[in-house]
Automatic annotation (TrEMBL):
This is Ribose-5-phosphate isomerase A. The gene is rpiA. Its EC number is 5.3.1.6. Transmembrane segments: none annotated. InterPro entries: NagB/RpiA_transferase-like, Ribose5P_isomerase_typA_subgr, Ribose5P_isomerase_type_A. It is an enzyme of class 5 (isomerase). It comes from Xenophilus arseniciresistens.
Length: 229
């Protein structure tokens, strides 16, 4: 009798647990945001006595970490972190990612930049040949949203203001999110650099400068480790 295929939720649990092997004991770990990271946080609680604590990339992750008894440090209160563990909406064959489906992209990029290694945890549905099928999240200062929308339209992108409960979603930083469809991202590094310098853009959800060094990819056959450096 063959067993039932693993659900996406079970794959996330599997990879969340596998990430524990990348946590440096005795140190502070950088923690991302999202449903896959929630599984990692739950797993992290089982070794909380072996780490000093975490730097968190969102209010949601902070609340989950603290509820499980894991100390959360201000990013300004600590130096470089050895590892940052986070999910992705898409990851390509070089470790470039689209992130921000959970609206936490700015703080995610900040904690990633503070860390020597980015370990991405994802299920196989997130692996792509080229970035861009998932709408690119861009955190913007609200007064610039219309002009940035026109700048994306000039590049063939359709930017839509993200809503929550019928009103513009407000990020942990008090800003808005545009989700941009229809972009052809042939050079993620150049794309990230260009969009980042548009006035009013807080963060673009392409992580090429802060790419992953490792991806733990959950598949029905188990967790694969992909290295990019
Ligand atoms: C949040 C993110 C998440 O890492 C990304 O959206 C993946 O989330 P999930 O693990 O729920 O699929 O970038 O801003």
């Amino acid at each position: 009798m063959s067993s039932a295929p693993m659900t996406q939720d079970e794959l996330k649990t599997l990879v969340g647990r596998a990430a524990l092997a990348h946590v440096v004991r005795g140190e502070i770990v950088g923690v991302g945001t999202g449903s896959t990271v929630n599984k990692f946080i739950d797993a992290l609680a089982t070794i909380k006595d072996q780490i000093r604590g975490a730097v968190s990339s969102s209010v949601a992750s902070t609340e989950r970490l603290q509820a499980l008894g894991i100390e959360v440090f201000d990013s300004n209160a600590v130096g470089e972190l050895s590892v940052y563990i986070d999910g992705a909406d898409e990851i390509d064959g070089r470790g470039h990612m689209i992130k921000g489906g959970g609206a936490a992209l700015t703080r995610e990029k900040i904690v990633a930049a503070q860390s020597r290694r980015f370990v991405c945890i994802a299920d196989a549905s997130k692996q792509v040949q080229a970035l861009g099928a998932f709408p690119v999240p861009v955190e913007v200062i609200p007064m610039a949203a219309q002009r940035i929308t026109r700048q994306f339209a000039a590049q063939g992108g359709q930017a839509v203001l993200r809503l929550k409960d019928g009103a513009p979603l407000v990020t942990d930083n008090g800003q808005h999110i545009l989700d941009v469809r229809g972009l052809k991202i042939t050079d993620p590094l150049a794309f990230e650099s260009e969009v980042n310098q548009w006035p009013g853009v807080v963060t673009v959800g392409v992580f090429a400068h802060q790419k992953a060094q490792v991806c733990l990819l959950a598949t029905p056959q188990g967790v694969q480790t992909l290295q990019y450096d």
